[in-house]
Design a protein that fits this description.
With 329 residues, the chain is an all-alpha fold. It contains 16 helices and 2 strands. The longest helix is centred in the middle third of the chain and has 28 residues.
Length: 329
C-alpha cells in the first residue's frame, strides 16, 4: 500500500521527535560556560523556545539522503546557536524590549554582557562544528556568518531610507534566507549529496527562507501584539522598509508617502496611526502582493526538490512551505 501524498505538522514532528529532543539536550549542554553570565543568558534564550525550523530543515535534508550519524543533531544545534546569537545582537542593535513575549535578554543583563555572550555563542558554534572534521562544513558556516553580519551592517545603513525591492530582497537573503539555505546544504553535505542534489536543496532553503521572511514582515504589520510577542509594526518604528511598504510607496499619493516617511524619520507613530498605515497598504493591495510573492517563493521551493524519490521526508519538505505561508506568528 502506497504512503499518503500529504503530511501534516504532527506527522512531521513525529518524524523528527527523537532528534529534536536530542537537539535540545545538545543545545542546553553546548551553551554552558564557566562564566555564569554566559550560561544564564544561554539558558534564558534556549528556554524562550522558538520553532526550531532551521535545525529541523537540516535534519530533514540529511534524512532525505539517508544520513544516519550523530552529526545532523550536532550541526542542528550549531545552526540554532548561530541563529540565537544573531537574535541577541539584533535585539541590542534594534534596542528591542521584548522577544517571543518575554523581556529581551539585553533588558535583563545589559548590552555589554549580551554582546559578549552573542560573540561567545558564535565561537561555540564553530567549536562544535569543528568536531565534524569537514572543511566544506566550516567554509559554508564561515560564508554564512559573513553574509549575516554584512546584512546587519547594510540594514543599519539603510534604516529610515526608502530602499528598492531588490535592495530589500538582498537584505532578506543575507539576514534570513542564507541561513535556511545553509541548513539544507549542511544536511546535504553530511548525506554525501551530489552537486545537483546540494544545489537543489540549497535553492529549496533559499526560497523557503525568502517566503518565511516576507510572511514575517506582513505579520509584523497585521498580527496582534499578543500573537507576535512584541509590539506591532516594529519594523516601521525601527526605520525598516519591508515589501508591502515598498509596494505601497510605488503607488501611493504624495500625502500618503509623507505619512510613511514621517514614521521612518521619527521612529514612532507621531500623528500617524498604525491604522492609517494599514489603510494605505490595503488600498493598494500591498499586503496581498507581499503574501502572493511569499507564495511564489514557497512554490518555487517545492518545485526545486521534485526530482527526489518519494518518501515521508520528501513529503515533510513539501509541507514546510505551506506551513510557512499559512502561519499566523
Amino acid at each position: 500500500m502506497s504512503a499518503p501524498a500529504t503530511i501534516n505538522g504532527k506527522e512531521v514532528f513525529d518524524l523528527l521527535r527523537d532528534d529534536l529532543v536530542s537537539l535540545e539536550d545538545e543545545f542546553g549542554h553546548d551553551t554552558v560556560s564557566t562564566v555564569r553570565a554566559i550560561t544564564e543568558i544561554g539558558e534564558y534564550l534556549r528556554a524562550g523556545g522558538g520553532k526550531r525550523i532551521r535545525p529541523a530543515l537540516l535534519l530533514l535534508s540529511a534524512k532525505l539522503l539517508n544520513y544516519q550519524g550523530r552529526g545532523a543533531v550536532r550541526l542542528g544545534a550549531v545552526v540554532e546557536i548561530i541563529h540565537t546569537a544573531t537574535l541577541v545582537h539584533d535585539d541590542i542593535i534594534d534596542e528591542a524590549k521584548t522577544r517571543r513575549g518575554r523581556p529581551a535578554a539585553n533588558t535583563q543583563w545589559g548590552n555589554s554582557k549580551c554582546v559578549l555572550a552573542g560573540d561567545w555563542l558564535y565561537m561555540q558554534a564553530f567549536k562544535i562544528a569543528v568536531q565534524e572534521r569537514n572543511f566544506r562544513i566550516l567554509d559554508t558556516l564561515i560564508e554564512l556568518t559573513q553574509h549575516m553580519v554584512e546584512g546587519e551592517l547594510l540594514q543599519i545603513e539603510k534604516l529610515g531610507k526608502l530602499i528598492t525591492l531588490d535592495e530589500h530582497f538582498d537584505l532578506i537573503f543575507r539576514k534570513t534566507a542564507c541561513l535556511f539555505s545553509v541548513c539544507m546544504r549542511l544536511g546535504a553535505i553530511l548525506g554525501g549529496a551530489t552537486p545537483e542534489q546540494e544545489s537543489a536543496l540549497g535553492k529549496y532553503g533559499h526560497d523557503l527562507g525568502m517566503a518565511f521572511q516576507i510572511v514575517d514582515d506582513v505579520l509584523d504589520l497585521t498580527a496582534s501584539e499578543d500573537v507576535l510577542g512584541k509590539p506591532v509594526a516594529s519594523d516601521l518604528r525601527e526605520g525598516k522598509v519591508t515589501m508591502a511598504v515598498i509596494h505601497a510607496l510605488e503607488r501611493c499619493t504624495a500625502e500618503e508617502r509623507g505619512k510613511i516617511e514621517k514614521i521612518l524619520k521619527d521612529r514612532a507613530f507621531n500623528g500617524v496611526t498604525h491604522a492609517d498605515i494599514l489603510a494605505i497598504l490595503q488600498r493598494y493591495g500591498s499586503l496581498d502582493a507581499a503574501t502572493s510573492r511569499a507564495a511564489q517563493y514557497a512554490e518555487s521551493a517545492r518545485k526545486s526538490i521534485c526530482f527526489f524519490p518519494d518518501s515521508e521526508i520528501k513529503r515533510a519538505l513539501l509541507w514546510a512551505p505551506e506551513f510557512v505561508v499559512a502561519r499566523e506568528k
